[in-house]
Amino acid sequence: MRSVGASPLANPDEALRNAVIRLAGNSQDGIQSVGGMLGRLAGRTAQEVMTYMTIPSTISGGPSIFQVHLGSGEVLHAGDDADVLVAFYQHSYDSHIGALTDGGICLYDTEKVEQIKNERGIHHIAVPFTSATVEAIGGTAKDRGKNIFVLGLLCSMFRLDKKKLVGIIEAQFGKKGEDILRNCLNAFDAGFAFQTTDLRQFQFAPGEAGHSKRLSTDGNTMLGLGLIAAGVRYGAGYPITPWSSIMELLRRELPKYGGVFMQAEDELAAVAIALGAAYAGHLAVTGSSGPGLSLKSETLGYASMAELPLLVINVQRGGPSTGLPTSVEQSDLLQAIYGSHGDSPRIVLAPKNVEDCFYIALEAAQLARRCSCPVIILSDQALATRIEAFPEPNLEEHWIEPELDLSDRGEEFKPYPIEGQTRHAPPGTPMHEGTFPKVTGLEHNEMGHPSGNPENHQMMNDKRRNKLVKLAADLPLPDVYREEDGEILLLGWGSSYGPVREACDRLRDKGLCASATHLRHLHPLPQQMGELMKKYEHVFVVELNDSGLYGNGQLATILRAAYCNPAIQSICKTDGLAFRVREIVEGVDQFLA
Amino acid sequence: MSDNKTAQPAEKLTKKQLKADHPTWCPACGDFAVLASFFNVIQKLELTQTDFVCVAGIGCSSRIPYFVNSHGIHFIHGRAVPLATGISLSRPDQHVFVFGGDGDGFSIGGNHLNHAARKNINLTYIIMDNFVYGLTKNQTSPTTPIGRRSKTDPNGSVDRPINPMMQLLGSGATFIGRSHATHVKHMNEIFERAINHNGFSVVEVLSECTMFYPGAFDAAIPRKGGEFNLIDEEVHDTACINDAFELAQLEFPGKFGVFYQDDRPSKNDLEQKWIDEVQGNLGDISQQDLMRKSFATMH
Questions:
Q1: Residues A139-178: tens digit of each pLDDT
Q2: Is residue B294 less than 8 Å (CB to CB) from chain A?
């Protein structure tokens, strides 16, 4: 475990367990691509990795960081503080030097950073990134290539696997032409060979992740591939950050699997097209980010009423309104659960990390088929863009064949049976007695006929709700990390899984009896959730949304309403950044003080 | 894409088999004739109930799926066309029919009409245009003529109405027809040609709202002193969009028939072509291996 404040780089003779490297520059400097390559290298060398990035929401330019937490053992979060800061500009230096650990290392571009602060034992290493890169590539390079120069420098400093790293560079830049690849490799070699008297070298302990086939990628990629593995072959979407890359993946990949993903004219059309494919008998998907989910909400209400299965991805970002399009928040939970008109039950799930993005798509597909209703997967910007390394999914175990069931539904077929699950008959299904069913958003009776009968409306609302009540009884309780009861339970959801667990350990280091759990099924909640929470004196719900008028975040509000448990407290924030471990620990400290 | 078309007896359906609920429209509503004409064409084309699906949004005319004994879906206001798009693209075995009014099609759903038309989605869209919001009881619609009084324009409508033919021509629809609910034979002919067209076919049918806008289309009813002028396809080249725009600008009631037809490929064809090409290039590979190839790029 990392301790706060002291750098693991303070003793160069010991093998490193982990290190956090923060690259700070502008968004066009290619620091994301360097960070991404370090992440992929980790995957190839049995190391754990988690990355974190901030991107400006400007069209071009603006300060940006990419942070990489590399570790030989388990890596649960992207790191509160950096052990190494690479500062490309004075503004990068000024903004981030405070986030460097005591005794940490700062590499800075001597041509861009003019004022440095000698404090807290920070070891400054002056390197002329710009001119050294120009020298390596040739006179026309201008600002390009210095990211790769820095990668070479880091490779030498941490004795990273040079051969594998060069392989990754070749894979990434080989397609862009020989000249570009040659320039990259020249810049890399120059960085690798750069000599300065005060450059220190470190060696990571061997990676402990034993699995031979490991993937390093981001959450949106795994969610997109997970949807395909879940049997999704049709869908539609509209561009919006940070959802777009899932839609781009599906548009590109689905034709290979015989499917179609369509770019729609707007969010309303996107959800309607997907629902059309669902009515036609396929498992279909639409997705968006916060504002787009709002636009889709009328059709979500329809899908609840008409009882059609539909997968909906919402990659949350900072809101409300256009908000902070490139920052992270978990503030769409209530919208996901309740966002429509009338009572419109649906299922809401949230993945805990990049790997889980794949598996949650499969679970969502199964639940959509089982309950014949919308299933919303709440991802978020941090999960969408960060890179983690994890074992490759075994497709023989995790694969759902797409199925179009046009079989005869039998003589007793009722489109909306009061007892029993709704299974709509798609177009083309032959019907007994020659009476063909209608799917409708008007309240309807069992046969699908519009009906305003008071008892019928009550019964149908009961039916639509009760299928989720039944589901709740079948949902497993989330695993508890550490103790089954005690003083403190930290309860998180979504992308804060790692920081919450790490915070739990830090609280225990301080002598508190702390445990942690993580909710995957946000709606309905697992039936025994209230019992689980009762066993702790304090339940801290950790979430990236506002604590609201009554002091409770969105999940905490729901948990309090559901279980009337006054032990439930909120640790909330909305600064657009992922939770730091320290912030969670401080939240608990403040409450207990 | 799927080709799970179920084997069906090739018997021609009777009217009785095609009818479902009795329409809830007001007496003498123009939509009765549209429905009757639709039945005629289904019978003539010998479609069976597993061959087609009826889709509608919200409005009086959008009730049609309940009145046709086939698979049908009654969706939300304005989004019938994108819903039908999802069916059409994922079920090439189905004829997809969309029914709606001027409010559903040209107002709340106007953007979808434009885009489905330009993308040339393979479906047939019948717009029953009555120049008024009838279901909500007499508000101004996007096709209401200037000066006409309604509950939302007590002094007479002031906004220029859209010209449906101009709108559809501009949008890129590949089959554009116009008919009138009092001329069933004409509707039969235009509907049949629309259904046989590969791509986005749309027919505007002037269909009188006898409750809120009686007499709106008398100018095109000979027995009421009007003129029902047909497009002479000996003279009008349906492949020429400039000619079609000229026809579309004639003073009301204008002409009836096929304004424009274009045989450019449908989106359905183009997507299938992409699938065929990409799958051809991939050769004989299982879907799981295909995904393993994606994984391999992340090792």
A1: 665 668 899 999 999 999 999 999 999 999 998 898 888 8
A2: yes
Q: Does the beta-carbon distance from B1 to A258 stay under 8 Å?
A: yes
Mutation target vs B (from A44, A161, A165, A260; most B CBs, 10 A cutoff): A260
Domain A216-391 has CATH 3.40.50.2000: no
Facing A435 at nearest CB: one of B55, B69, B91: B69
User: Touching check for B146 and chain A: CB below 8 Å?
Assistant: no
The CA distance from B43 to B37, in Å, is 10
**What is the percent of chain A with per-residue pLDDT over 70, rounded to a whole number?**
98
Determine if the pTM surpasses 0.90: yes
CATH architecture of the domain A480-592 equals 3-Layer(aba) Sandwich (3.40)
Any A CB within 8 A of B196 CB: no
| Amino acid (one-letter) located at A440 | T
Question: A574-586, pLDDT tens digit by residue?
Answer: 999 999 999 999 9
Any idea where the domains of chain B sit in the sequence? 15-264, 266-299
Indicate if the pLDDT at residue B6 is higher than 60: no
Interface residue B17 vs chain A (CB under 8 A): yes
Structurally, at CATH architecture level, domain B15-264 sits in 3-Layer(aba) Sandwich (3.40)
Concatenating the DSSP letter of every residue in B138-177 gives SEE-TTPPTT---SS-TT---SPPP-HHHHHHHHT-SEEE
Residue A335 structure tokens: 């919208």
Tell whether B2 lies on the interface with A, counting CB pairs under 8 A. yes
Q: How many CB atoms lie within 10 A of CB B165?
A: 22
Distance CA B225, CA B207 (A): 17
| A8-193: CATH, from 3.40.50.300, 3.40.50.2000, 3.40.50.720, 3.40.920.10 | 3.40.920.10
How does pLDDT run across B84-123, given as a tens digit for each residue? 999 999 999 999 999 999 999 999 999 999 999 999 999 9
